[in-house]
Each structure stands twice: as C-alpha cells, then as structure tokens.
Amino acid sequence: MSSITINGQTHGLPQDPRTTLLDFMHQHLQLFGAKKGCDHGQCGACTVLVDGERMNACLLLTFQLAGKSIVTIEGLASDDELHPLQQAFIDNDAFQCGFCTSGQICSGVALKSELEKNRPSTLWFDPDYTKTEDVKERLSGNLCRCGAYPHIIDAVSICTDEQEA
Amino acid sequence: MKPFSVFSLQDKQDLSKVASFEHSRFLAGGTNLVDLMKHQIEEPDQIVDLSGWQEAHQISESDHKVTIGALVTNTELADFAYRQPTLSLLSQALLAGATVQLRNRATTGGNLLQRTRCYYFYDTTKACNKREPGSGCAALDGFNRIHAVLGTSEHCIASHPSDMATAMTALDATVHTMNAAGEVRHIPVRELYTLPGDTPHIETQLGADELITAVSINKTARGTQIYQKVRDRSSYAFALVSVACAMHVKDGIIENINLAFGGVGSRPWHAKSAEDYLRGKSATEALFSQAADVELSAAKGSGGNDFKIPMLKRTLVHVLGQAASHQQQHPDHEGAIHVR
C-alpha cells in the first residue's frame, strides 16, 4: 500500500518523507483547494477529510497515509452540482476573501456526519447549550480573519438542520 | 525540517529490530511532533513510524478496568469515555482541548508526551534549558503569563499543556510500556513525569527505546466528576488553570476525592496534599478553602503568572462546592453533573 487516494484518484507517495499532505497536493498534484494559512495546525484553512474524518493537512506527513482515502474541497461537488454546503455558503454570503472557505466547508461537511454519529462536544456537559453554540464550538478549529463567522455559522447550521429534518 | 530515515513499526515486537534509538522519535499522529520538527526544535535522525501498528488502536474492557491502546485517537477516547460515567473526567478534559481536527489525529500516547507551549521553548533565538540544556531560561524574566506555579525550578517554569493527562492523573491511570529488550513496565501516570530541577530537558522517566503501548484506568466508582477549565477564550485555548475533581460524599463526609490541576504545574499536578486534607472530613466551604491553601503553600509565581495562584484557589473551591452540593442532592451519583 504505497499509494494514497485523493478525490478518487490514486497517487504514489512522495519520495521525501518530510512532505506534508498539504505540500504534496500543492507541489505535486496542483490541487490548491486546501489552503496554507499558518502551516502549524492552528487555522484550519488546510482542513481535508481523511477516511471521512477532518484533519489539518499541514500536520500530516504523507508517508503515514498509505492506503487512506482523502477528500478535499475539489472532491465535494458532483459533475454538475455543488455540494449542498457549498451552495449554502453562496446562498448565505458566508465568505469575504475566501481563503478559509475550503477548510470551513470541509469542516462543516464532517461536522454533519459527526452529529449523525452522536459524537459529543464539550457543550453536551452544559444543560443550557443551544445548537448554534454547539456548531460554533465544533467549528472553532477554522479561523476566518475577515470575521465572516455569523454567516458561516448560518450556512453550516442550515445544512445540519436540513439533515436532521 | 531536517531529513530523517523511517522505520515502520507494525507490532511492538518490532522494537527489537530497530538498530539504534539515538536521535530517534516515535511518530504517532504527529500533531505536536511534526509541528516541532517544522520549527526545528525537534530534529530526529530517525522516525519510528507507528501508523502501521494496528493492535494499538483498540480499547478493551474487563469488569474492573478499561485499557486504551496508545494509538486510540482523542476523538475515539472522548466518545468512549462520554458513555462511561466512571471515566467522565477523561471525556470532559479531552473535549475541552484543541479542535475536532486535532483530536481526530492526536493519539493517547502522543497526548501524554506532548511538549510544553512555552513561548521561549518555541523561539529558537531565545534561551531555553528544555530545548538547549545550559542555555538559561528566558521565561523567568520574560512574558510568563501562561507558565507554571507548581513544581518549577530556577531552570524552567514551563507548564505541562495536556488536559487529558490532567484527567488521567486524577483518575490514577497506569501507563504501560515496552522497550527494545521486550521489558514491560506499568507506571502510574502520577509517576510518569519528572520535575524539571536542573534537567528540564528530561520530562518523563521513559527510556529512548521505551514505547507507550496502552493506558489503563480502573472503572471504580469515584463520585461526581468535574473538569473545570479556565482559559482566555472559551474554545481552542490551553488552560490557564484547570481542575479535575471526582468526589463522593456520604452523610456529609468526603469518602472519596481525586484531584489534579492542569495549566499550573510543570507536570499534570496531582493535588495529593489537598486530597489528604479533604478525605474523611465534613464537606464545607471553609474546608475547601483550607485544602486549597495546603496544596498551594508551595506555589510560586514569576510575575506574569502570579494571578494563577488565587485563580486556582477560587476554581478549586468552586469545583469542590459544586461536586459536594451535587452529591448531597443526588447521593451516590457517578460521573458528570449533566450529559445530553
């Protein structure tokens, strides 16, 4: 298993074990959807899905991911239709400069499946928490320096609610 | 990042096949180590890669004990412990730390061995005895708001950052290890970490070839469990002060008390003096305040972090009061005060 699958396509692993998944995608595969914000796992702009779980691609050494399946922002839409959360970001005006957006959307997609799996958040220990507060807590690993948070929270909350309905 | 070779470990028995552990690091999730390698604070010549070690992903249970494989992720462990009242502290602490992205990748063994977030440890242009023994400590006279007040030395005031390890310290977990010669050890987590003294670059009693294989925790009833974390923002920040508490009160008397502090110690701080002071006594606010004074009598601020001492006392008294009051209203209650 010396290969990795990214958005359905199989690739050989990079020769240099120092190569992070983020650098591999940028420098070897011309996949620039996941962004390099801080490169230290603090901003979430590089968030991708690894076997369905969201992770910071800047902290993943690619050689450790042999046999894994990665989905990035480029892999979310179908041929002729945006992913519902991508559409919700447009409908809710949920970005300004757009640099954090691909990470926010990958994070939001994972958030929905985490709620489906009944994964707790720290707010579940609080008897008075609201759904909006829970979404905010679960998205705290994605920074937006434009401060578009209210609309980002709206877009993710709407998609989450639709799933529950 | 400095170049390194990779040894791929598939099973813990493979440890004996590693030629040398000099300048070697075990790599699990990498959420801390990869970052430190980027900063060139960690510069291993060899990485022993644990990603192919399947056995270490398991959580196993007996009637009395839970055994958590070293590679169980923080997300998996938080999810598991959320549904186990006797392990509630673990879930509360894990979910109060980092972000979903990091918890999905970070592992149990790696979390225990993460390094401090001291600014001067990270800044390779500044003196740091932990990073470069003998170079001095820039934090002593620098910005030391986040630094430790317990267990420090004149050589290092770095605080241990882990919430999970604080909960495990309160829960009296045992860390299981194996070395290249196949020798296994069962180390109480309360004894895993060494104090900085004049060797702050040594942080645990583990050998270079010694691998954490699992962590086990007894499922004994401990009473109401509260992890209270105080920080600069309400999510994705390290603790300024945290208190992990499990308390069982019967007929107004404290029958069981487990206490540990995070964010304030050079290691996850087992508040043994406070536990000993509280156990067997009548649960009153005056007693809680006295217990805090007993534990904090040796606390020492460095200027910017002086506030942590009264903050820790207030947090501790508050948490003890909450736990005692819940025990009085709900005798024999076990776990978190509220779960969804």
Automatic annotation (TrEMBL), chain A:
Keywords: 2Fe-2S, Iron, Iron-sulfur, Metal-binding, Oxidoreductase, Ubiquinone. Residues 1-76 form the 2Fe-2S ferredoxin-type domain. GO terms for molecular function: 2 iron, 2 sulfur cluster binding; metal ion binding; oxidoreductase activity, acting on the aldehyde or oxo group of donors. The keyword Ribonucleoprotein does not apply. It comes from the Bacteria. InterPro entries: 2Fe-2S-bd, 2Fe-2S-bd_dom_sf, 2Fe-2S_ferredoxin-like_sf, 2Fe-2S_ferredoxin-type, 2Fe2S_fd_BS, Aldehyde_Oxdr_Iron-Sulfur, Beta-grasp_dom_sf. The keyword Ribosomal protein does not apply. This is (2Fe-2S)-binding protein. It comes from Salinimonas sediminis.
